[in-house]
């Protein structure tokens, strides 16, 4: 049976360590004993069981989780491991941030903000 927003909102682990609510096709919502809710997608790639973390509920809605699930299935159909793809994108984003934010860049911004404070009208 497919999940509904109402069922997700009222779902609780009822003291169990973990509870999984399945939506179909490997997509499920993991509910911890503390009430945290995590979207997961279980799939097989090259004969191995894999799990893709999609996000937390309610930050990722049921509709968004289903879309991310479909996107991951598309990658699988193309022979791409969604978990490895996500990991590669994260590494690339970090690399781009490191390249764009240099000490010189930060120092120049700091200097431009502080420049009016240090100007001396009497010295001019």
What does this structure look like?
The chain has 124 residues and is an alpha+beta fold. The protein has a single domain (5-117), classed as Double Stranded RNA Binding Domain. The protein has helices at residues 5-10, 62-77, 82-100, 103-118, and strands at residues 18-24, 27-32, 37-45, 48-57. Strands 1-2-3-4 form a 4-stranded antiparallel beta sheet, covered by helices on one side. Strand 1 (18-24) and strand 2 form a beta hairpin. It is elongated, with a radius of gyration of 23 Å.
Based on DSSP secondary structure assignment, what is the total number of beta strands? 4
Helix amount: 40-55%
Instruction: Let me know the average pLDDT.
Output: 88
Broad shape: elongated
Instruction: Give the low-confidence spans.
Output: none
Structural class: alpha+beta
**Major sheet attributes:** 4 strands, antiparallel
What is the succession of H and E elements?
Answer: HEEEEHHH
The percentage of residues in β strands lies in: 25-35%
Number of helices: 4
Strand order of the largest sheet: 1-2-3-4
Number of domains: 1
Rg from alpha-carbon coordinates = 23 Å
Regarding CATH, which class? Alpha Beta
Looking at CATH, the homologous superfamily is: Integrase, DNA-binding domain
Give me the CATH fold name: Double Stranded RNA Binding Domain
Distance between the termini: 78 Å
- Level-2 CATH architecture: 2-Layer Sandwich
């Amino acid at each position: 049976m497919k999940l509904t927003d109402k069922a997700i909102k009222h779902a609780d682990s009822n003291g169990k360590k973990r509870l999984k609510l399945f939506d179909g096709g490997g997509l499920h919502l993991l509910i911890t004993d503390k009430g945290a809710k995590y979207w997961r997608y279980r799939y097989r790639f090259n004969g191995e069981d894999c799990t893709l973390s999609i996000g937390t509920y309610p930050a990722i809605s049921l509709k968004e989780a289903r879309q991310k699930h479909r996107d991951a299935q598309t990658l699988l159909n193309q022979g791409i491991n969604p978990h490895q793809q996500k990991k590669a994108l994260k590494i690339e984003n970090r690399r781009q941030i490191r390249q764009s934010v240099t000490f010189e860049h930060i120092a120049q911004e700091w200097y431009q903000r502080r420049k009016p404070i240090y100007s001396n009208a009497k010295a001019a």
